[in-house]
Design brief:
The chain has helices spanning 45-55, 90-99, 103-107, 117-129, 143-151, 161-170, 187-193, 195-203, 218-230, 246-253, 277-283, 295-309, 315-325, 345-353; strands at 2-4, 28-29, 36-37, 64-66, 76-80, 110-114, 133-138, 154-159, 179-180, 209-213, 235-241, 289-293, 334-338. The longest helix is centred in the C-terminal third of the chain and has 15 residues, at 295-309. The protein contains 14 helices and 13 strands. The protein has 2 domains: 2-89 and 188-353, Rossmann fold (3-Layer(aba) Sandwich), CATH 3.40.50.1100; 91-184, Rossmann fold, CATH 3.40.50.1100. The strands form 3 sheets. The protein has a 7-stranded mixed beta sheet with strand order 1-12-11-10-13-5-4, with helices on both faces. A 4-stranded parallel beta sheet has the order 8-7-6-9. The protein is globular. Helix 1 (45-55) crosses helix 2 and helix 12 (295-309) packs across helix 13 (315-325).
Length: 355
């Protein structure tokens, strides 16, 4: 296990959520793209509160419960966002991002890139608007997630992980048409995710640390965007598997990094091959570091949550719990975000029974 913390966190006198490192931005343009990507900017509280109202009728306000584990410390609370209608937090960002599209953009239909959860979120939101949705799905995504996306009306196009990751950077893929909803590097998506941070503070005002899995970084950036502005002393940490931890390496090196040792695992909903520079920019002054956990620790966390709470957490959903139990996040109160529960039940049983 390891934890990497950034060299440049928010300093006294800086506006929470908008430190010096984030005050100047430049346009990002990819020569292979026909459009200019909007510059990164902080997500304001007004935008977060507006997003919460916008998606109120679509999402579930999920419960926060105490984890009664066997040790005296740390004090851990579980934010059960696996209880969303699609069993994953992605519905928050997707619902807000699709709602914020213009009528002309929605008329073109929408598409996204996903290992399963973002695709379900965008497909669910698209169905609410009666518009077509396509998903470029990572070919190793569990069939359970693929089938759930199809059941929500999504057209599925499969591609290798590397091709999907490249498409996320370029925001284009041959054969995919319509308005692109990025699964994490999207301002409105992050504003929707930030509603989760509001709920945590309302339900546990004395929280000291919040941990959430890092895949692309949209969840932890969203939660941090809300909490940093309302409770700047709360520590915001990511959690990553040992097989895919570009976030921790980026904090260690103080710049967006590749993770060349990347390996696929059952933690399919988190852990990428690299930290996108734009997402690294979004995290500055908001996220304090990332805890790396082993696959065995992740399995034990999945089992513990099932035993103590009778809740199913997929691999990515259990990362935050594993990180909290590692002792690297302090004594608490710690909120571990159970970000998803979309896993084949047979596979789940095999994983938690493994010794």
């Amino acid at each position: 296990m390891s934890i990497a913390l950034p060299e440049n966190t928010t300093h006294p006198g800086e506006t929470p959520g908008c430190p010096r490192a984030r005050r100047t931005h430049s346009l990002t343009y990819n020569s292979r793209m026909p459009t200019v990507v909007t510059p990164v900017r902080p997500v304001t509280l007004d935008e977060i509160y507006a997003a919460r109202e916008r998606i109120r009728g679509v999402i579930t306000r999920t419960p926060l419960i105490k984890l009664r584990h066997d040790a005296a410390a740390p004090e851990i609370w579980l934010k059960l966002d696996n209880l969303q209608p699609i069993n994953a937090f992605k519905i928050r960002g997707a619902a807000n991002a699709v709602a914020m599209l213009t009528p002309e953009e929605r008329a073109k239909g929408v598409w996204t890139i996903s290992a399963g959860n973002a695709g379900q979120g965008v497909a669910y939101a698209a169905r609410e608007y009666g518009i077509p949705c396509s998903v470029l799905a990572i070919e190793t995504a569990p069939e359970t997630k693929i089938e759930r996306m199809r059941n929500l009306g999504a057209r599925i196009v499969k591609a290798p992980f590397d091709a999907c990751w490249k498409a996320m950077e370029e925001r284009r893929f041959e054969g995919m048409e319509g308005s692109f909803v990025h699964p994490f590097d999207d301002h409105n998506f992050i504003a929707g995710n930030a509603s989760l941070g509001l709920e945590i503070l309302e339900d546990l005002p004395n929280v000291r640390t919040v941990i959430a899995a890092i895949g692309g970084g949209g969840l932890v950036s969203g939660i941090g965007s809300a909490i940093r502005q309302l409770a700047p002393s709360v520590k915001i940490l990511g959690a990553e598997p040992e097989t895919a931890a570009p976030g921790a390496r980026s904090f260690e090196k103080a710049s967006a990094q590749q993770f060349d040792e990347w390996q696929p695992s059952f933690v399919d909903g988190a852990g990428g091959k690299s930290m996108f520079p734009r997402m690294w920019e979004r995290m500055q002054g908001i996220v304090d570091g990332s805890i790396v956990v082993t696959l065995d620790e992740t399995k034990r966390a999945m089992r513990l949550v099932a035993e103590k709470v009778r809740v199913i957490a997929e691999g990515a959903g259990a990362l935050a719990v594993a990180a909290a139990l590692s002792g690297k996040a302090g004594e608490g109160p710690i909120v571990a975000v159970i970000s998803g529960g979309n896993i084949d039940l047979k596979k789940f049983a095999e994983l938690i029974e493994a010794r």
